[in-house]
Specification:
The chain has 138 residues and is α+β, with helices and mostly antiparallel strands. The protein has one domain: Nucleoside Triphosphate Pyrophosphohydrolase. The chain has helices at 51-63, 126-137, and strands at residues 8-16, 22-27, 38-39, 42-44, 66-67, 71-79, 84-92, 95-96, 107-111. Strand 6 (71-79) and strand 7 (84-92) form a beta hairpin. The longest helix has 13 residues, at 51-63.
Length: 138
């Protein structure tokens, strides 16, 4: 348990990297906490699922793609007002299909070399993910 003794929500997040040096962000749809904020695609890990199983399911549901593999980037925790989350962040370099907003969410491909994303606001837990990604790749 964390210091607040709140239950931990396990989340799988996948940073899609394309061959043009870009990563994908999605905008949280209306009705969800932090609606309108931009985030790395992913979602809750269900009981009995591995991180890869959850990523495959979530990215199929959210983006309509089938991921081929993942590389673990980092695990980090963030205390949001609505939930305490442990984020298992992976890099996804290979997938089948073209990502689209299956939940009517907007998508934005962002250049890895840019100082900050062109879209905002960014979900608070997304910043450390993107910083670790840049540290790894630069």
């Amino acid at each position: 348990m964390n210091e607040n003794q709140r239950p931990i929500t396990e989340v799988a997040a996948g940073i899609l990297l394309d061959d043009k040096g870009r990563y994908l962000l999605g905008q949280r749809p209306a009705g969800k906490p932090y609606a309108g904020y931009w985030e790395v695609p992913g979602g809750k890990i269900e009981k009995g699922e591995t991180v890869l199983d959850a990523l495959k399911r979530e990215l199929q549901e959210e983006l309509g793609i089938e991921i081929q593999s993942n590389e673990e980037l980092t695990v980090l925790e963030h205390d949001y007002p609505h939930a305490y989350v442990r984020l298992h962040v992976s890099i996804i370099r290979e997938w089948n299909g073209t990502p689209k907003g299956c939940e009517n969410q907007a998508l934005s491909w962002e250049l890895l070399t840019a100082d900050k994303p062109s879209v905002e606001p960014l979900l608070p837990a997304a910043w450390p993910m993107l910083e670790r990604l840049k540290d790894l790749l630069t």
